[in-house]
Design goal:
56 residues; elongated; alpha+beta; 23% helix
């Protein structure tokens, strides 16, 4: 996931939500930087979790 936000608080809420999502693992967080317009650029790498119910 890559994106921009004007609120670091919103970015922290997004990360918390991603960590709690039962469908994905949050593998790593890319660099977070503020651009010339004051927006926060962010990047997260996610991997879909494998459900145990599909294992034979």
């Amino acid at each position: 996931i890559k994106g921009l936000t004007t609120s670091i608080t919103a970015l922290n809420a997004l990360e918390t939500s991603l960590r709690q999502d039962a469908s994905f693992h949050l593998n790593q967080r890319g660099a977070t930087q503020q651009d010339a317009q004051g927006r926060w650029q962010f990047e997260y790498q996610l991997t879909r979790k494998v459900s145990d119910e599909h294992v034979l």
